[in-house]
């Protein structure tokens, strides 16, 4: 199937917007292939504040506009991507796009948490979708999970670390003993915190995301003004130390939970969580959401919660969804072969380090013989050990394990088959991989 | 929007099939609400071996059949769910359903890994979808993630613990020092392993799943006969011990990785992985897949990899997808309000334990005064501490922290506002939650 290219109107060419352009350039062909040729997309219009400003990702001059009406109304724009942030112009852009029956992709959690009800009503009225995977937890597909994968689940609870900036600051306070101000300054220097970090550190960025998740899971609008939010500005080294001593770590946690009476608890605040819980290991700018559904049980979704490429990953996935709905190409979702001559690597070529256990007859020279065979094949040994059973210290048949440096599996197999011929080796050696993950 | 109910033909009413019936009964109304009334489903035909056999989940007699043709051809069947397993009858059922243009939902990884190419070709030919989220990692939406959420990503690698039986056995060998045979027998007793556990412990169940993931990620069919698979039958306590001593754990790992030359590595084998890696903490019957995409970066998806309810969760999600495509109801995917009078719990009613830090003027009686106020409100104290700064041991203003037992936030706030009035308390106390996750 061949189709004409869909035009994207990109409102906002900042960090994420540039990431979207780059991702489409890098992987546009792959997307076309994976969708059986139904989805090709290109940025046909881009809303910027200053067209003259030099930018990392170049776009043709005629693509740029400073007037959002021009972007939404352009007949060459089929899908509108809103990445300008804020809740005023962004609202007008999304609303106008929906009225024009142009699907919208947005990463604007504040807009949806504050004014989503109005926009989703427009979406229904004009039967035009609003996609917003990028609004919560960057590259983690948590919106799709709650909306689609867990649609048959009553959601008991969702607990998440969903603000990377706060999480980075708390981790630095924990591991480097920094105070809040120093850790924040460091995060800003590294580009993990905005020049105005207020929404990140005061908890509201996480709260907007939690509100979105809760509305999807529980089906009623939640007024942000009624949500209790506390940020991490009040966290001090003494709190971190005290938590540590008790076996906790301090995290900015968003908690959403349905109670037996049907009421929904939603709160964001610094929290002590047990060091042994999997959420406690979510460090740096990573995000994670633990979801407990009545059928799926406990699940956890972990990944990069912000940044150019991860957020662009979610925007692009939404763009493909939007494109598919425009193309009515929603039927076949099975495996679609798109790569001719794809090559499965023969197992002999794969390379890792190895653990090998030999069953040997214990006599002087055994290690030397095996080691010599490995050396002859150029396979390095990082360790060897023959555990002595205290009950049978003079056993004739013993296990002998070798840790081997990285080499091809083919070379290993070849060498092991030679070693297997040695008198002292009684059976086929057992091989495990040592994985670098 | 109101629609007639869609009929499901359920081939196989075993563990998962019963789970699907139960999930639809339990949450059918929720699904209808969440889809704006577009999706109502009921089982109209069920394929069983012996209609007379008593079963946990009752179905009307006229619904039961022993002839799959009857199920597929029944005009009251709109969607066919294949859960009988195997690659012969299951193939015929899926193929016949597709030819009849009835969407298929299956959890049969062996069928798709062995004969998926034929079935997906039929799916394209008859423009009818095959959904198979339940085929890989039970309740974890990894198929949707790879196919949809990461569609704009080049997938660098996928590493997974995707056979719960093996993982349970390895964990028991690790934590309880059992040998393989004993741990397997235990898993069978608990229902975690089939009477014939061959496919689980020999690695092929995991391999089938890895093959499915790899074909989706890389776009070419992979011949199972060319895949190198080793199971956990060869793992012995000595290997587990040795791994432990070196800071590793032994896991049955499926590794899929694309190399710079485009060739794809795919293997399943017992592996040493570093104890500190997040996959090392995946225990029991849980599954996890770490996915590395070029845009999304490192991600991890964790959850229940098997069992009645988690697998049914994925089948039901696929059923909703299939139903939506039949209903052409793919437009609006934003938030849909479906619960009138939903109630956000006032923050005062929420309950946790707390950490509270007071800024106090250090004089005799401070702890007593604060403790008395807490006691008066019936709030229990589990600990208190006032860290002394060695440089200023006689400081006038000090921090004093209290750990408090679970109580409502309203009661805490009320009590803290009283405490704030005490002469010795210099500012508003700082409160963190202590979360039970």
Helix/strand-derived category of chain A reads: alpha/beta
Number of domains of chain A: 3
Indicate the multimeric state. homodimer
* Shape verdict of chain A: globular
Q: Predict the CATH topology of the largest domain in chain A.
A: Dihydrodipicolinate Reductase, domain 2
What composes the largest sheet of chain A?
Answer: 6 strands, parallel
Mean pLDDT of chain A: 94
CATH architecture designation of the largest domain in chain A: 2-Layer Sandwich
Number of strands of chain A: 16
Could you name the CATH class of the largest domain in chain A? Alpha Beta
The termini of chain A sit apart by 39 Å
- CATH homology superfamily name of the largest domain in chain A: Dihydrodipicolinate Reductase, domain 2
Evaluate the radius of gyration of chain A: 28 Å
Written description of the protein model:
With 437 residues, the first copy, chain A, is of the alpha/beta class. Chain A has 3 domains: 6-138 and 310-327, 3-Layer(aba) Sandwich (Rossmann fold); 150-303, Dihydrodipicolinate Reductase, domain 2, CATH 3.30.360; 347-434, Alpha-Beta Plaits (2-Layer Sandwich). In chain A, 35% of the residues lie in helices and 24% in strands. Chain A has helices at residues 15-34, 68-73, 89-99, 109-125, 142-149, 164-175, 180-189, 198-201, 204-218, 237-245, 308-327, 366-376, 409-420, and strands at 6-11, 41-47, 64-65, 79-82, 104-106, 130-131, 155-161, 228-229, 248-258, 264-274, 286-293, 297-304, 351-361, 381-385, 397-408, 430-434. In chain A, the strands form 3 sheets. Chain A has a 6-stranded parallel β-sheet, sandwiched between helices. In chain A, strands 8-10-9-7-11-12 form a 6-stranded mixed β-sheet. In chain A, strands 14-15-13-16 form a 4-stranded antiparallel β-sheet. In chain A, a hairpin with a 5-residue loop joins β9 (248-258) and β10 (264-274). Chain A is globular and about 85 Å long. The model of chain A has no long low-confidence stretch (mean pLDDT 94). The interface between A and B is large, with 143 and 143 residues.
